[in-house]
Request: fold
Amino acid sequence: MAKANLNLSELSDEIASQFRGLDPNEPGQWPILPQVAVWLLAAVAVVVLGWFLVLTGEADLLESERNREPELKQTYRNKLAQAVNLGELRKQRLQVQEYVTQLEKQLPGKAEMDALLSDINQAGLGRALQFELFRPGQVVVKDYYAELPIAIRVTGRYHDIGAFTADIANLSRIVTLHGLNVSVPKGGETSGVLGMEATARTYRYLDQSEIEAQRKAKAEAAKQGGKQ
Reply:
Protein backbone atom coordinates (compact mmCIF):
# COMPACT_ATOMS: atom_id res chain seq x y z
CA MET A 1 0.00 0.00 0.00
CA ALA A 2 2.85 2.36 0.87
CA LYS A 3 4.49 1.52 -2.47
CA ALA A 4 1.28 2.34 -4.36
CA ASN A 5 0.95 5.68 -2.58
CA LEU A 6 4.55 6.40 -3.41
CA ASN A 7 4.04 5.60 -7.09
CA LEU A 8 0.96 7.86 -7.27
CA SER A 9 2.86 10.66 -5.55
CA GLU A 10 5.76 10.27 -7.95
CA LEU A 11 3.34 10.23 -10.92
CA SER A 12 1.62 13.39 -9.71
CA ASP A 13 4.96 15.12 -9.25
CA GLU A 14 6.02 14.01 -12.73
CA ILE A 15 2.84 15.38 -14.31
CA ALA A 16 3.07 18.64 -12.37
CA SER A 17 6.71 19.03 -13.35
CA GLN A 18 5.76 18.93 -17.06
CA PHE A 19 3.53 22.01 -16.56
CA ARG A 20 6.23 24.02 -14.79
CA GLY A 21 8.36 26.58 -16.55
CA LEU A 22 6.51 26.41 -19.87
CA ASP A 23 7.64 28.97 -22.41
CA PRO A 24 4.50 30.38 -24.13
CA ASN A 25 6.64 31.47 -27.10
CA GLU A 26 7.86 27.91 -27.76
CA PRO A 27 4.81 25.61 -27.46
CA GLY A 28 6.47 23.12 -29.76
CA GLN A 29 9.14 22.50 -27.11
CA TRP A 30 6.61 21.69 -24.38
CA PRO A 31 6.33 18.18 -22.96
CA ILE A 32 3.65 15.90 -24.39
CA LEU A 33 1.07 16.35 -21.62
CA PRO A 34 0.83 20.17 -21.85
CA GLN A 35 0.57 19.91 -25.66
CA VAL A 36 -2.27 17.35 -25.40
CA ALA A 37 -4.02 19.50 -22.79
CA VAL A 38 -3.78 22.58 -25.02
CA TRP A 39 -5.11 20.67 -28.02
CA LEU A 40 -8.04 19.36 -25.98
CA LEU A 41 -8.88 22.88 -24.77
CA ALA A 42 -8.70 24.21 -28.34
CA ALA A 43 -10.99 21.43 -29.57
CA VAL A 44 -13.53 22.16 -26.84
CA ALA A 45 -13.36 25.90 -27.63
CA VAL A 46 -13.95 25.20 -31.35
CA VAL A 47 -16.95 22.97 -30.55
CA VAL A 48 -18.49 25.54 -28.21
CA LEU A 49 -17.87 28.38 -30.65
CA GLY A 50 -19.32 26.35 -33.51
CA TRP A 51 -22.40 25.59 -31.43
CA PHE A 52 -23.12 29.24 -30.77
CA LEU A 53 -22.23 30.51 -34.25
CA VAL A 54 -23.60 27.75 -36.47
CA LEU A 55 -25.63 25.13 -34.71
CA THR A 56 -27.77 27.60 -32.77
CA GLY A 57 -28.88 29.27 -36.01
CA GLU A 58 -29.58 25.90 -37.58
CA ALA A 59 -31.58 24.87 -34.51
CA ASP A 60 -33.69 28.03 -34.83
CA LEU A 61 -34.25 27.31 -38.51
CA LEU A 62 -35.27 23.75 -37.72
CA GLU A 63 -37.74 24.98 -35.10
CA SER A 64 -39.17 27.49 -37.57
CA GLU A 65 -39.67 24.77 -40.18
CA ARG A 66 -41.33 22.54 -37.58
CA ASN A 67 -43.74 25.35 -36.76
CA ARG A 68 -44.59 25.68 -40.47
CA GLU A 69 -45.39 22.00 -40.76
CA PRO A 70 -49.09 22.25 -39.72
CA GLU A 71 -49.65 25.12 -42.16
CA LEU A 72 -48.01 23.22 -45.01
CA LYS A 73 -50.06 20.12 -44.21
CA GLN A 74 -53.27 22.17 -44.33
CA THR A 75 -52.21 23.73 -47.65
CA TYR A 76 -51.53 20.26 -49.01
CA ARG A 77 -54.95 19.04 -47.89
CA ASN A 78 -56.65 22.05 -49.53
CA LYS A 79 -54.82 21.53 -52.81
CA LEU A 80 -55.53 17.81 -52.68
CA ALA A 81 -59.24 18.54 -52.22
CA GLN A 82 -59.12 20.94 -55.18
CA ALA A 83 -57.37 18.34 -57.30
CA VAL A 84 -59.98 15.74 -56.41
CA ASN A 85 -62.78 18.18 -57.30
CA LEU A 86 -60.99 19.68 -60.32
CA GLY A 87 -63.65 18.51 -62.77
CA GLU A 88 -66.47 20.02 -60.73
CA LEU A 89 -64.53 23.28 -60.24
CA ARG A 90 -63.98 23.58 -64.00
CA LYS A 91 -67.69 23.03 -64.54
CA GLN A 92 -68.53 25.76 -62.02
CA ARG A 93 -66.02 28.08 -63.69
CA LEU A 94 -67.74 27.61 -67.05
CA GLN A 95 -71.12 28.29 -65.45
CA VAL A 96 -69.81 31.51 -63.90
CA GLN A 97 -68.32 32.59 -67.24
CA GLU A 98 -71.66 31.97 -68.96
CA TYR A 99 -73.46 33.97 -66.27
CA VAL A 100 -71.02 36.86 -66.64
CA THR A 101 -71.48 36.76 -70.41
CA GLN A 102 -75.25 36.96 -69.98
CA LEU A 103 -74.88 39.96 -67.67
CA GLU A 104 -72.53 41.66 -70.11
CA LYS A 105 -75.17 41.27 -72.83
CA GLN A 106 -77.53 43.28 -70.63
CA LEU A 107 -75.09 46.18 -70.64
CA PRO A 108 -75.39 48.36 -73.72
CA GLY A 109 -72.40 49.63 -75.60
CA LYS A 110 -71.56 53.28 -76.01
CA ALA A 111 -73.38 53.43 -79.36
CA GLU A 112 -76.55 51.87 -77.89
CA MET A 113 -77.06 54.38 -75.08
CA ASP A 114 -79.26 56.70 -77.17
CA ALA A 115 -81.60 53.81 -77.97
CA LEU A 116 -81.79 52.87 -74.30
CA LEU A 117 -82.65 56.44 -73.30
CA SER A 118 -85.39 56.40 -75.93
CA ASP A 119 -86.72 53.11 -74.47
CA ILE A 120 -86.95 54.67 -71.00
CA ASN A 121 -88.76 57.70 -72.41
CA GLN A 122 -91.16 55.53 -74.41
CA ALA A 123 -91.90 53.41 -71.34
CA GLY A 124 -93.21 56.55 -69.60
CA LEU A 125 -95.14 57.83 -72.58
CA GLY A 126 -96.67 54.41 -73.07
CA ARG A 127 -98.16 54.66 -69.59
CA ALA A 128 -99.59 58.13 -70.32
CA LEU A 129 -97.16 59.83 -67.99
CA GLN A 130 -96.11 63.42 -68.47
CA PHE A 131 -92.35 64.02 -68.32
CA GLU A 132 -91.53 67.24 -66.56
CA LEU A 133 -87.83 66.38 -66.41
CA PHE A 134 -85.69 63.87 -68.27
CA ARG A 135 -82.05 64.93 -67.95
CA PRO A 136 -79.08 62.58 -68.41
CA GLY A 137 -76.21 63.47 -66.09
CA GLN A 138 -72.45 63.09 -66.25
CA VAL A 139 -71.13 59.63 -67.09
CA VAL A 140 -69.25 58.06 -64.18
CA VAL A 141 -66.54 55.64 -65.35
CA LYS A 142 -65.86 52.71 -63.02
CA ASP A 143 -63.24 49.97 -63.31
CA TYR A 144 -65.14 47.78 -65.77
CA TYR A 145 -68.25 49.73 -66.70
CA ALA A 146 -69.69 53.23 -67.01
CA GLU A 147 -72.71 54.52 -65.12
CA LEU A 148 -75.12 57.13 -66.50
CA PRO A 149 -77.53 58.83 -64.04
CA ILE A 150 -80.76 60.27 -65.43
CA ALA A 151 -82.86 62.71 -63.42
CA ILE A 152 -86.56 61.95 -63.96
CA ARG A 153 -89.71 63.76 -62.86
CA VAL A 154 -93.08 62.51 -64.15
CA THR A 155 -96.72 63.02 -63.28
CA GLY A 156 -99.56 60.58 -63.73
CA ARG A 157 -101.96 58.30 -61.95
CA TYR A 158 -100.81 55.96 -59.21
CA HIS A 159 -101.23 52.73 -61.16
CA ASP A 160 -99.59 54.21 -64.27
CA ILE A 161 -96.55 55.27 -62.24
CA GLY A 162 -96.34 51.76 -60.71
CA ALA A 163 -96.60 50.18 -64.16
CA PHE A 164 -93.86 52.51 -65.44
CA THR A 165 -91.44 51.40 -62.73
CA ALA A 166 -92.26 47.76 -63.57
CA ASP A 167 -91.60 48.46 -67.26
CA ILE A 168 -88.21 49.95 -66.35
CA ALA A 169 -87.34 46.83 -64.37
CA ASN A 170 -88.32 44.60 -67.30
CA LEU A 171 -86.21 46.37 -69.93
CA SER A 172 -83.73 44.13 -71.72
CA ARG A 173 -80.93 46.38 -70.47
CA ILE A 174 -80.13 47.01 -66.82
CA VAL A 175 -81.77 50.17 -65.49
CA THR A 176 -82.23 50.85 -61.77
CA LEU A 177 -84.27 53.52 -60.01
CA HIS A 178 -82.90 55.35 -56.98
CA GLY A 179 -84.23 57.96 -54.58
CA LEU A 180 -87.89 57.55 -55.54
CA ASN A 181 -90.09 60.26 -54.16
CA VAL A 182 -93.84 60.15 -54.82
CA SER A 183 -95.87 63.21 -53.88
CA VAL A 184 -99.12 64.98 -54.73
CA PRO A 185 -98.38 67.94 -57.00
CA LYS A 186 -100.08 71.27 -56.59
CA GLY A 187 -103.60 71.04 -57.95
CA GLY A 188 -103.58 67.25 -58.03
CA GLU A 189 -105.51 66.67 -54.82
CA THR A 190 -108.82 66.23 -56.60
CA SER A 191 -107.63 64.84 -59.94
CA GLY A 192 -105.79 61.85 -58.47
CA VAL A 193 -102.55 62.80 -60.23
CA LEU A 194 -99.26 62.04 -58.48
CA GLY A 195 -95.74 63.17 -59.13
CA MET A 196 -92.66 60.99 -58.96
CA GLU A 197 -89.05 62.08 -58.85
CA ALA A 198 -86.23 59.57 -59.16
CA THR A 199 -82.78 58.99 -60.53
CA ALA A 200 -82.59 56.25 -63.12
CA ARG A 201 -79.17 54.71 -63.50
CA THR A 202 -78.21 52.72 -66.51
CA TYR A 203 -74.89 51.00 -67.14
CA ARG A 204 -72.79 50.19 -70.14
CA TYR A 205 -69.58 48.32 -70.67
CA LEU A 206 -66.43 50.20 -71.57
CA ASP A 207 -65.08 50.01 -75.09
CA GLN A 208 -61.44 49.08 -75.69
CA SER A 209 -60.22 52.68 -75.88
CA GLU A 210 -61.84 53.50 -72.53
CA ILE A 211 -60.32 50.38 -70.94
CA GLU A 212 -56.88 51.40 -72.19
CA ALA A 213 -57.41 54.92 -70.85
CA GLN A 214 -58.37 53.47 -67.46
CA ARG A 215 -55.24 51.32 -67.36
CA LYS A 216 -53.05 54.26 -68.36
CA ALA A 217 -54.61 56.47 -65.69
CA LYS A 218 -54.03 53.82 -63.02
CA ALA A 219 -50.43 53.38 -64.12
CA GLU A 220 -49.85 57.13 -63.95
CA ALA A 221 -51.45 57.32 -60.50
CA ALA A 222 -49.29 54.45 -59.26
CA LYS A 223 -46.18 56.14 -60.68
CA GLN A 224 -47.02 59.42 -58.99
CA GLY A 225 -47.69 57.64 -55.71
CA GLY A 226 -44.31 55.88 -55.96
CA LYS A 227 -42.50 59.19 -56.45
CA GLN A 228 -44.10 60.66 -53.34
